[in-house]
Specification:
This protein is mostly beta strands and 92 residues long. It has one domain. The protein contains 1 helix and 6 strands. It has one helix spanning 65-72, and strands at residues 28-30, 38-39, 45-46, 76-77, 85-86, 89-91. The strands form 2 sheets. Strands 1-6-4 form a 3-stranded antiparallel sheet, covered by helices on one side. Strands 3-2-5 form a 3-stranded antiparallel sheet, with no helix packed on it. A hairpin with a 5-residue loop joins strand 2 and strand 3 (45-46).
Length: 92
């Protein structure tokens, strides 16, 4: 994530568990993680040093065309998650 790489298939478990990630199943995509970081309830942000700035180029909001396109096709956007705002993440 620190290198701002977009990614999809990655055979791994969900952090802190032994359950397979949706990335391991080919059912998740991460796009522009530095512009669209994961923001945790305790204030941590991943990748380190990233800042979520709606309106900045490449930054997703619920009105961004990429977000709308994924949602129209039945995907979930991590920006709508309750426990963490995972702005770079889409899953089906």
């Amino acid at each position: 994530m620190a290198a701002d790489n977009s990614s999809a298939f990655n055979y791994r478990t969900i952090a802190g568990t032994d359950r397979l990630s949706r990335h391991a199943l080919g059912r998740a995509v991460d796009i522009n993680p530095r512009e669209n970081p994961a923001v945790y309830p305790d204030g941590r942000i991943a990748p380190a040093g990233a800042v979520y700035r709606p309106g900045s180029p490449g930054t997703f909001t619920d009105e961004h065309p990429a977000v709308c396109a994924f949602i129209e096709r039945g995907w979930r956007w991590g920006g709508d998650f309750d426990h963490v705002r995972d702005y770079h993440h889409f899953e089906k």
